[in-house]
Amino acid sequence: MSSSFPQVSSASHPLAPYGWDARWEAAFTPYAERGLLPGRVVRVDRGQCDVHTADGLVHADTAFVTPHDPLRVICTGDWAAMDRAGDPRFVREYLPRRTAFVRSTSSTRSEGQILAANVEYAIIAISLAAELNLGRVERFLALGWESGATPLVVLTKADLVADPLVRGHLVQDVGNAAPGARVLAVSSETGEGIETLARLVSGGTSVLIGSSGAGKSTLANALLGRDVMEVQAIRDVDGKGRHTTTTRNLLALPGGGVLIDTPGLRGVGMWDAGNGVGQVFSEIEELAAGCRFHNCAHLSEPGCAVLAAVADGVLTERRLESYRKLLRENQRIVAKTDARLRAEIRRDWRLKGAEGRAAVDAKRGRFR
Q: In the chain, what are the domain boundaries?
């Protein structure tokens, strides 16, 4: 069957402003041969979605792509293969994702939630109007790196920190907690840093994430150059406020690139983000290579290079504790969905218990 897909270059394709490129065009070929139409999902709500196609924005039904696995449901940012006509139109399939930003919905449930698909940049919005929580920054970063995107830490409301020296220290503190990631102070009120941020994300799709009150919707409006996202007043004294964005929306940026705005996240649970944690704490993992024991937990083991670095002031105790916390949480989440890992953890616990008992017996002069 010959393809009915329009033979136009990806650069001049009507979907180019929404991220369409030569790679997506090649990936869509088998779907085009079936007479399906490509489109970028810009919003999903209760089994329905809005999709940008070459014909414009259309409303579609996702009944054919609603699996039981929450990580396989269609999501904002997906590239859909849908019917060319009909009432309603149906999304038949979506293209394999290049990247996916996933979090755990709850620390007590083994269920993941996909927040955005096919993103190149994860913009992590942190408000300078509230007390800086470096542990939360590291948590967002771990999920950002794990997604396959490049994290960008954006410190919003910079105009509220009048002293440039104080602001510089805050940027440095966040930079120390975010190795390999760009840290940028911005102000939607004064425009500081907005042009730089727009330039950084102009080459791809970005997902904008952060806690409630981080100023995400105001930042989104500044990047878009117009008031698209509703903004509610936030108490700058503590950064608290109601969610402004209630759904995930995908919008084309005027200077190039695509932005996916998300609701404020009160909970940011790990979801199989071991590699992301390793990326955030790369200096600890490099130090761990020098530990005497390959399975060193960096608690009290002799010859631990990580603990030696803490003692020497090279590594802060706060950073090590944050590393331990995220690793423990991630391991628990993975263990809930991986029977083999659960068995390995139990074996490790038994082994460590036996080693501990043997050490106690040796100290007491008893030998088994």
A: 10-94, 100-261, 274-363
